[in-house]
Structures are given as structure tokens and as C-alpha cells.
Amino acid sequence: MSDKRISFQVDGEVQGVNFRSYTQKQARSIGITGFVRNTSDGTVQGEAQGSADQLKDFVQHLNTGPPAASVSGVMHNDISPKSGESSFHVK
């Protein structure tokens, strides 16, 4: 099965609550690659790549977030897969 890639944005109280490290941990446990970063508008954004099932699991984790987070919405869109990426990291 070929990999898919998504871009994502998470809205709510998601900065200053370990959301990026939580996201990295979940991504690595699922086995997907990509990145996550804070933005100046208070959201968390990133990209993730893996199988359709892996990405479905990952988006569920984004909707939950770590205990201190309050997620009000998650948007994601399909984008072109990237080659040569070997891990998921925090920017």
C-alpha cells in the first residue's frame, strides 16, 4: 500500500501544554513520519505521512491531545507524499 501525506492544523488550547511532544510520541508509536510546529496564531500545524490506516489513527490522537490540551478543531488535507523522510520531529 502506498503512503499518503496530510497537512494538519489543530485549534484550541494547544500551545504550552506539551502538544508537540505528545504528537511526536504518538506519531512515532504509530510509525509515521513528518513534523509538528507551533504557529504565531496559537495553532499547531504539521505534516504526517503513512498508510491510510496509520493516518486515521494519528488524526484521532490529534483530536484528543494531551491531558492539559483543549482541542476545538482539527483540519487536515491530503498533500503529495515526500520521499527520504525517516522520522517524525518537532520543529
Automatic annotation (TrEMBL):
Residues 63-91 are annotated as: Disordered. It catalyses: an acyl phosphate + H2O = a carboxylate + phosphate + H(+). The keyword Phosphoprotein does not apply. Residues 5-91 form the Acylphosphatase-like domain. Its EC number is 3.6.1.7. The active site is at residues 20, 38. One of its GO terms (molecular function) is acylphosphatase activity. Keywords: Hydrolase. Belongs to the acylphosphatase family. This is Acylphosphatase.
